Request: fold
Amino acid sequence: MTNNNRANFGSKIGVILASAGSAVGLGNIWRFPYETGNHGGAAFILIYLACVLVLGIPIMVSEFLIGRRSQANTAGAYQKLAPRTHWRWVGRMGVLAGFLILGYYSVVAGWTLEFIIEAASGSFVGKTAADYISSFTTFSTNPWRPLVWLVLFLLSTHFIIARGVEKGIEKSAKIMMPMLFILLLILAVCSLSLPGAGTGVEFLLKPEWEKVNASVFLGAMGQAFFSLSLGMGCLCTYASYFKPDTNLTKTAFSVSLIDTFVAILAGLIIFPAAFSVGIQPDAGPSLIFITLPNVFQQAFSGVPLLAYVSSVLFYVLLAVAALTSTISLHEVVTAYLHEEFQLSRKRAASLVTGGCIFLGILCSLSLGVGKEYTLFGLTLFDLFDFVTAKIMLPLGGLFIALFTGWYLDKKIVREEVSNKGTLKMPFYKLLIFILKFIAPIAIALIFIKELGFLKL
Ligand code: PHE
Reply:
């Protein structure tokens, strides 16, 4: 559906901060360090950077041009650019992925609020490593407490979404993103000044190529898609609010640069701190919720105030990063309901929030009282994570590349990338080549590997 007075982001910096807000999230601060830790450090990072540059940026440009050209939500976008074709299912799958990701992502996002309170009330002080594990398990399996935080987190997301694109999404990104950068820098400085921090830095900078195998390469590509919010129409929806003079290629470069910068800064916080107290950095979800409180207490044991401030700041940082991502996930579904079913924006947002609270409650309970109810051997929480991140995103990315590379009229692609001929396009041929061949083949490989068809 076209809408002549469609909402717009008001400024260029707003465009970049909102898109970067979507990209920067739990994926950067939790998943990136964990994957790096598991895959041999610096070599993984170099391959990851190559993936962002070669695959991430072209697919992001592709999502941007689909969104801005169509001026519609992600499902409507394909209907407009490819009427009466099956391409509409790519958009619909994106909306569904957004809804499901928001369901379980909000559970973890809610945990960050609990940890802000725990850090602020000083309850990390004087605990042993075993205490951190048991208090995290007691909390995350408690039937009530995580639900309260989940609902609170979704209501905060709802409140911002209901205020609209410019006053809600853009304004909140303009406040939260600079705050996030400042928090990251403070924490990185603290972490780097710890005794023994050098080992952590070395781990990030000195590639151990002998650890690299095909699975490291594919893992880095998967991380790039998740972290850049690609494959489900998030950035496509945001691009529908871009103005005609937004430079799509430049924006894609900026967003990717910011996302990568944050991931590396997160690495510079977590690795030096972890190595400094002799903790291995490959503990997965527990790295942030079990290991890190311990790291802060031990690392700054001589300066209790620093231990207190750094742990509070860290969880505030995580919550802020997660919030700018949940906003973007919520917007994908809200814009879809608002435009395709002619619901008011507020009503659409309420339906999404209500639905996600329901999904989130189920996901949260599936970690505790509902642990026995599994499907394919996975709890609901793990199932949502698996189906979205490992199936829907790679599949979406694959189709987006094919759509722009093969289906879409190149006149449209050129017009959007060059802003109707007003911008030079030094990378145009390369962009099309990647979208046609390299990206589909590479994503197909990740997809096959993640589903375990291929033992590499
Ligand atoms: N990119 C977000 C993160 O790093 C997660 C996300 C994925 C958000 C897909 C939107 C869409 O946490």
